[in-house]
C-alpha cells in the first residue's frame, strides 16, 4: 500500500509538472497571425499595403522573417474601381501606377494568402478644418474647436518648434462627434506639454496638429495597450485590440487618415 501511494504521488507530480510547463511555454500557445497595415490620406500617393506575419515571442522581430511576398491583394474604390496590388519588396504591395486618394472616397481591401482571407473598408477623411485654437495655461495643453464630418473621429498632437518639430508620441484621446459634438463641431485637446516646454521661453513656439480618422480608429485606439508606442501591437499582435481588418487570424488597420498643418497655439 505504501509503495502504491508513493507511485501515485510521483505520477501526479509528473502530470501537473508537465501541465504547468505547457501553460508557461509561449511556443505552445503561439498562433501565427497575418498583419495588415495601411494608412491612406490625400497627401502624396497611395502608400501601399504592408503584409507580414507575427513571430513567436521568443524570436527577435526581423522584417525578412515576417514579410509575406506571395499574396493576392486588390482594392475596390467607391464600390466599382478595381485596382490590383503587386508585391514591391519588403512585404509591401502597390498598384502598378501612382494612385491619388481623394477626400470622402471609400477604399475596400480584399486579400488572400495560403489559407488566410481578409477584408477591410475605410473612408478617406477630410483635412481637418480648424475654427479656433487655445493654449490652456492652467493645464498646459492645447485645445481646438474643429468642424466635423460623417464617419470621422478626431484627435490632436502637441508640437514644439525646436529647430525641427518635436511632437507628442501619442494622442491624449480620440473624440467621436456622435458622442459629444454640437452644431457640427467638436472640441479636442492634446496631451500636456512636457514641463520643459511649459516655460515662457517657448511662448510662440508651441503648436498642435489635428488628425481626422475613419471612425474605426476609435475602437483601435481605445483597446490598444496605452503603455506602448502607437504601432507596437502589430509586432506580436494583441488579444484585446479591436482591428478594422476582418478575417480569421488576421489583424491590422487599413485606415483613412488626414491631418492639418502645424497650427500655432499662442
Describe the structure in brief.
With 266 residues, the protein is an alpha+beta fold.
Description:
With 266 residues, this protein is of the alpha+beta class. The chain has helices at 2-24, 26-29, 63-66, 177-180, 217-223, 233-236; strands at residues 34-40, 49-53, 72-77, 81-89, 92-94, 106-113, 116-123, 130-136, 141-147, 152-161, 165-167, 185-189, 206-214, 250-259, 263-264. Strands 1, 2, 3, 4, 5, 6, 7, 10, 11, 13, 14 and 15 form a twelve-stranded mixed β-sheet that branches. Strands 8-9-12 form a three-stranded antiparallel β-sheet, with no helix packed on it. A hairpin with a 3-residue loop joins strand 3 (72-77) and strand 4. It starts with a helix and ends with a strand.
Distance between the ends: 86 Å
SS elements, strand count = 15
Given the C-alpha coordinates, what overall shape results? globular
What is the succession of H and E elements?
HHEEHEEEEEEEEEHEEHHEE
Mean pLDDT: 84
| Spans where pLDDT lies below 50 across 5 or more residues | 1-27, 229-233
Our Rg estimate from Cα atoms comes to: 24 Å
Structural category is alpha+beta
Q: In which range does the helix fraction lie?
A: 10-25%
Give the biggest beta sheet: 12 strands, mixed
Compute the number of helices: 6
Strand content: 35-45%
Oligomer: single chain
What are the salient characteristics of this protein?
globular, 266 residues, 17% helix, alpha+beta, 12-stranded mixed sheet, 15 strands, disordered N terminus
Which helices and strands, and how do they pair?
Blueprint: H1 2-24, H2 26-29, E1 34-40, E2 49-53, H3 63-66, E3 72-77, E4 81-89, E5 92-94, E6 106-113, E7 116-123, E8 130-136, E9 141-147, E10 152-161, E11 165-167, H4 177-180, E12 185-189, E13 206-214, H5 217-223, H6 233-236, E14 250-259, E15 263-264
Parallel strand pairs: 1-14
Antiparallel strand pairs: 1-2, 2-5, 3-4, 3-6, 4-5, 6-7, 8-9, 9-12, 10-11, 10-13, 13-14, 13-15
Amino acid at each position: 500500500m505504501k509503495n502504491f501511494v508513493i507511485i501515485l504521488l510521483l505520477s501526479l507530480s509528473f502530470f501537473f509538472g508537465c501541465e504547468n510547463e505547457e501553460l508557461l511555454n509561449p511556443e505552445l500557445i503561439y498562433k501565427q497571425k497575418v498583419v495588415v497595415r495601411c494608412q491612406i490620406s490625400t497627401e502624396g500617393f497611395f502608400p501601399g499595403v504592408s503584409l507580414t506575419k507575427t513571430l513567436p515571442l521568443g524570436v527577435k522581430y526581423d522584417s525578412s522573417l515576417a514579410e509575406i511576398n506571395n499574396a493576392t491583394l486588390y482594392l475596390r474604390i467607391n464600390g466599382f474601381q478595381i485596382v490590383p496590388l503587386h508585391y514591391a519588396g519588403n512585404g509591401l504591395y502597390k498598384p502598378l501606377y501612382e494612385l491619388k486618394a481623394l477626400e470622402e472616397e471609400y477604399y475596400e481591401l480584399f486579400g488572400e494568402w495560403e489559407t488566410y482571407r481578409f477584408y477591410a473598408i475605410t473612408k478617406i477623411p477630410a483635412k481637418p478644418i480648424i475654427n479656433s485654437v487655445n493654449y490652456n495655461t492652467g493645464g498646459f495643453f492645447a485645445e481646438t474647436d474643429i468642424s466635423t464630418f460623417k464617419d470621422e473621429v478626431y484627435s490632436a498632437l502637441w508640437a514644439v518648434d525646436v529647430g525641427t518639430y518635436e511632437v507628442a508620441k501619442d494622442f491624449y484621446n480620440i473624440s467621436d462627434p456622435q458622442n459629444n459634438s454640437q452644431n457640427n463641431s467638436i472640441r479636442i485637446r492634446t496631451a500636456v506639454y512636457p514641463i520643459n516646454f511649459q516655460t515662457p521661453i517657448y511662448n510662440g513656439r508651441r503648436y498642435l496638429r489635428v488628425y481626422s480618422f475613419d471612425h474605426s480608429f476609435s475602437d483601435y485606439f481605445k483597446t490598444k495597450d496605452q503603455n506602448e508606442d502607437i504601432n507596437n501591437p502589430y509586432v506580436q499582435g494583441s488579444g484585446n485590440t479591436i482591428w478594422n481588418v476582418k478575417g480569421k487570424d488576421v489583424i491590422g488597420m487599413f485606415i483613412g487618415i488626414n491631418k492639418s498643418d502645424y497650427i500655432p497655439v499662442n
